[in-house]
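Hi V.,

You were right to ask for the full record rather than a summary. Here it is.
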Amino acid sequence: MLCQELTYPSLLVLQKSKLKFLPRQAEQEDSTKFIALTLVSLACILGVLLASGLIYCLRHSSQHRLKEKLSGLGRDPGTDATAAYQELCRQRMATRPPDRPEGPHTSRISSVSSQFSDGPMPSPSARSSASSWSEEPVQSNMDISTGHMILSYMEDHLKNKNRLEKEWEALCAYQAEPNSSLVAQKEENVPKNRSLAVLTYDHSRVLLKAENSHSHSDYINASPIMDHDPRNPAYIATQGPLPATVADFWQMVWESGCVVIVMLTPLTENGVRQCYHYWPDEGSNLYHIYEVNLVSEHIWCEDFLVRSFYLKNLQTNETRTVTQFHFLSWYDRGVPSSSRSLLDFRRKVNKCYRGRSCPIIVHCSDGAGRSGTYVLIDMVLNKMAKGAKEIDIAATLEHLRDQRPGMVQTKEQFEFALTAVAEEVNAILKALPQ
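Predicted structure:
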């Protein structure tokens, strides 16, 4: 019995010892497998990260080279006229009484202006200043692969100066058909033209209602610019008003249903009058039957101002709000100092215009060089934003010249249009989900 009692506990201890030993061995094997799997997973993750980093570096390097090239394409026109005009605006604002009364429609105008402002009105005064701002590209339906192809094409086009030169020579040789301008050359209409080199075609001109005209004429040097819809113009390209055509200009604004005016010239350049001052500095002015009331003026940045007007037809007592975007730093037959400033300006215009169906009135001095360049850039980018697969900028320019002569006057302006399109496509691609 004693022997059995001694043996049984010893066996029990042995069995317990085995029970404890076997699980430890299994745990060690499982631990080894887990460590191996972890190392393999880490290696895979590291490989993916390295590949992603390499792709990012290559893309970033490509974008950086493009930006350097684009920035090198800018021009540096003189800034005396612009600086003087901006200083005049600032001096006028500095001497303005802080609580100038707005008139009977102030609250309504403020609410309309807020639709295109980046923030609330800083003060109840008619004029204010904003030091800086920027607009992001609007939502675009651009296909990513198409965008990259277009960007590559633009980059190659801008590098190949011989190709650009030949394409510009072909554009200069292009003749619109039909191209008759007999109405613009009538004796009574000649004084209404700022430049005899830019006359409206007979088949493509804005017709005023003669019964509402102060001169009982239907003529104004302005051309409707069609895009995809031949019944509804997307733009009206026109010259800067002359003293004798200001009433005609506001009649056109009213009869076209326009709510946005894009002005691309300083009033005076090197002592030469580029455009008549066709709006009131304060209060209201009467142009035939159209009363124009300045509601607000904002200096958004060094390059442009935004003005809001109340336009009233005294015959019908109807009123409308019109917004003028005035780009200051673009000189005759030249290009802006940077494409970025004009692209920011364009985004601001389009933010205000969004949802409208009326034409945008675009004018510089003669309504052809700077106006044509702006319309070309805007039309091409709008097509691309809508998902167009094929874009031919030269063919688009020929389409514009079919409707108004002289659209885009110099090779530098055409090259600037290519540069601006390339830069905006690059910005849109960066904003799209990859």
